[in-house]
Design goal:
Blueprint: H1 3-7, E1 13-14, H2 16-19, E2 21-28, H3 30-51, E3 56-62, E4 65-70, H4 76-87, E5 92-97, E6 100-105, H5 107-132, E7 138-141, E8 146-152, H6 157-168, E9 173-177, H7 191-196, E10 199-204, E11 210-214, E12 219-220, E13 224-231, E14 237-243, H8 245-257, E15 263-267, E16 270-273, E17 285-288, H9 294-306, E18 313-321, H10 323-352, H11 354-376, E19 380-381, H12 383-411, H13 417-449, H14 453-487, H15 493-497
Parallel strand pairs: 1-19, 10-16
Antiparallel strand pairs: 2-8, 2-18, 3-4, 4-6, 5-6, 7-8, 9-12, 9-15, 10-11, 13-14, 14-17, 15-16
Amino acid sequence: MPSLLETKGPKITLGLDLRGGLNMLLGVQTDEALKNKYLSLASALEYNAKKQNILLKDIKSSLEGISFELLDEDEAKKLDALLLELQGHSQFEIKKEAEFYSVKLTLLEQEELRKNTILQVIGIIRNRLDQFGLAEPVVIQQGREEISVQLPGIKTLEEERRAKDLISKSAHLQMMAVDEEHNKDAMKMTDLEAQKLGSVLLSDVEMGGKILLKAIPILDGEMLTDAKVVYDQNNQPVVSFTLDTQGAKIFGDFSGANVGKRMAIVLDNKVYSAPVIRERIGGGSGQISGNFSVAQASDLAIALRSGAMSAPIQVLEKRIIGPSLGKDSIKTSIIALVGGFILVMGFMVLYYSMAGVIACLALVVNLFLIVAVMAIFGATLTLPGMAGIVLTVGIAVDANIIINERIREVLKENEGIAKAIHLGYINASRAIFDSNITSLIASVLLYAYGTGAIKGFALTTGIGILASIITAIVGTQGIYQALLPKLTQTKSLYFWFGVNKRA
């Protein structure tokens, strides 16, 4: 690429196959997003019901929705108003059987939630990678619940591990109450037994073993506004977080009402600490400690700041393309491109003389137009894309061959050069437009419905087709018009068009 484009203008982004790096295919577990939605709703219901003195019992959350029991039938109207308030812009299906209630989202709302979850996860991954400092990451949806992530420039195993951990970390922060009544039996309790108690068993990172927590969280990471790395009294890195106004109020109210009890800080279903509440905690801030390295604490802070993923993700496929392979690809592709270019230009000059030189000039301009358009619009150049450029050279030279042949046909009929050029372009233009428009439609369809390598090929081919139409029909015709006074005086048609005689 010319140094001018590299230093003064926008750069072309090299694809993973040219630059080397990490390619991952991620699966988004949207069922978990639905569970988290119901869990958050159950938490809000429990908190607001207590504030309004609505007595509820056995609040449970699952993939099927929320279920609970209303203890006082006289509070039914207040409960209905509360559910309407919590519903917001969503649509609930509410079923009542005596004092028993079940609440869930409508099927349409569930589908909308799944779609929004994919978009939210894509946005969070992009945000995290930007803060991580990776240049030009590519994050796109692929299929219904899958995401393709391409990270050019990943060279070491440590960079790969950090990037993978940063992407796959849900960063789902929760504050949960310890089930003090039954926690002493946590080590010998099963998950099913914990569920029957309205609790959940989680791993305790700090102390080891298991800890029993109330299933409905006090609050979650949706209320988090900031996270950063600080150092504790032992000069160990910890992550300090800050909650929004609503989160700070809930945090303060709970801590004030539960002095002497324990509250757990849970991150991605692991308990990092479960301190005893000594007094009401105001200010809406806290810390997460867990023997982190500085890099781990920094990555966790990035993940928390970027927002919690509403659904966990799993790595379905991972491929590493080494930088050496990328360099080899670039080298062989450039050799193929330059070699093909030289052979085509040599043929054009030998067969069409000066008309061939003009056609070669059009090919060079065509190549520069492709590079310029891709740079301006931030398109990614891939190995199939370079193959598309080579193909475009062939398409562009076809157009010039058609034009030159039409001009030669008219010249052999003893017509003047000016008329030959005029009729040559008129006769050639229809064939050029027909063939190129057909190819352009095919490129558009490939780009619209293809993925990955196919898109790269379709993009460069499409840009090249448009550039070849401009250079072949407009560009070369302009050169001929500028040279027309000189051409009308020449007696050597062979020198200009490779024609030995007029008849």
